[in-house]
Design goal:
The protein has about 180 residues and is α+β, with helices and mostly antiparallel strands. It has helices at about 25-30, 30-50, 110-125, 155-165, and strands at about 5-10, 15-20, 80, 85-90, 90-95, 100, 130-140, 145-150, 155, 170. Strands 3, 4, 5, 7, 8 and 9 form a 6-stranded mixed β-sheet that branches. Strands 1-2 form a two-stranded antiparallel sheet. A two-stranded antiparallel ribbon has the order 6-10. The longest helix is centred in the first third of the chain and has 23 residues, at about 30-50. The protein is globular.
């Protein structure tokens, strides 16, 4: 049986999808039509989502520097509220890729203690040099906070808090910090 490799690409030779096509498929042309249609669909979908969700692939430039104290009562301009919320130039931000323990209404003493640690650690991280903010598919949460991931040198500060045990990766709902 004679076969050949068909190389199809979306960008004129920049990648490939290899599929062996039998002599029968070659003679009838069915495989080529199916392959071309599949290739066209793959390319269209890839280009659409690549453009629509390009934010998901590139970390931001580290262009933001500020001094972050812990927030106090009164007007807030630039300060840290808790382990996943901060103010910058009068705008309130929620770090969108994590969830940290609550300090305002914790479910247990351990959550309060860990929440305090997360707050001071976020303060330290934000004050440790330039960083960048990356928007996701949603601009704001239901409380009006800007939803952003925070990066320094291409690494998520949220992921760093998770690695240090001070945050959970955000999976769409809160996870418990207290023993059940």
């Amino acid at each position: 049986m004679v076969a050949f490799l068909l190389y199809s690409t979306c960008n004129g030779g920049s990648g490939g999808d290899r599929r062996k096509i039998s002599a029968t498929e070659k003679a009838t042309g069915t495989a080529r039509k199916e392959t071309l249609v599949a290739m066209a669909v793959r390319c269209a979908v890839g280009r659409y989502f690549g453009a629509a969700y390009g934010w998901a692939t590139m970390p931001p430039q580290d262009t933001i520097t500020a001094s972050f104290p812990i927030c106090a009562a009164g007007a807030r301009t630039t300060c840290v509220v808790d382990g996943d919320t901060f103010w910058l130039d009068g705008i309130k931000y929620r770090i969108s890729d994590i969830d940290t323990p609550e300090i305002g209404e914790p479910k247990c003493a351990w959550e309060r203690e860990l929440g305090q640690r997360a707050k001071y650690r976020l303060q330290s991280l934000l004050n440790n040099g330039p960083f960048g903010l990356k928007a996701g598919p949603r601009d704001e949460d239901k409380y009006g906070r800007k939803l952003r991931e925070v990066y320094r040198r291409g690494r998520s500060l949220g992921a760093q808090l998770v690695d240090e045990g001070l945050a959970h990766r955000w999976i769409g709902f809160k996870q418990s910090w207290c023993e059940v």
